[in-house]
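Could you please consider the sequence and fold appended to this message?
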Amino acid sequence: MSDDKVAKSLIGLFGASIANKRAIEQREATERMAEAQEEANRIASRQEKADRIASRQPAEETSVNGWDREDYDDGDKYEGFYKNGLRDGKGTYTYADGTKYVGEFKNNRFHGIGTCTFADGRKYEGEWKEDKPNGKGTYTFDDGDKYEGFVKNSEFHGKGTYTYADGTKYVGEFKNDRFHGKGTCTYAGGDKYVGEFYRDNRNGIGTYTYADGRKYEGEWKEGTPNGIGTTTYPDGSVENGTWRYGLFTGMKPDKIKDQNESKAKKHMKSDKEALTIEDELLKLKELYEKDLITEEVYKAQQISILESDK
């Protein structure tokens, strides 16, 4: 049988199945990326509100030293220590909307160790510097999410752990409120990614293990396999080569060379032998179309037949 006929046969057997599988994977990757971006926007909004509340100053100042209590015209109140008329030392500042900071102050600012509980239920516990979370701390959000780690100017920055309410957990490096650097993300559905991130997206080199047993190891871009990589399937089949935005586009150069050498060997085989291989593939396809074998068995047998033809 000619190479063209073999190629057409293989395309007919693999084409529809692979295209459908790739479309599903690409859709899932796009959905995960959209969810991550939505969460990043929500976190940014929370931080903006927190900064605006924390930077407020009282309506007036006292001239006392030591402990005192003040009620301000705008409804805020403070009770704690003063130094030269400024809030300094341990104290409690309660805003009119119910937001409350309990902790250390310096020169009228939240500075040191403290806990701020916001009116909507959010909470930050940890280190502060000049009215902003800075250092090591814990954010607990009203939707059940939680962050533990380092913070810079109210933003997640450095090493930390972000746990979502659904159980998804990221452990690794952050920059400007985003997953950025090396990290591990374990998803609620059982999937797991270990590798590099860039602005909340899987980007760089990493390994993604799916709950169904599939595994991709290689290069990523914008949350999807992109570049050189290898996907190993539960049935033992392997796709090793170039990927573009989640779709397998071809083999690596050395694999292409091997494939060409294999084609040359096939020319030396008799037409009868080639026909036998084609018959086996067609019979296998009939069994699959009649639901007499599963898709996994179908693919495994295809690979076995083709491997025996090398």
Q: What stands out?
A: DSSP finds four helices and 17 strands in the chain. The chain has two domains: 10-251, 269-308. Residues 1 and 271 are 5 Å apart (CA to CA). The first strand starts at residue 66 and ends at 71.
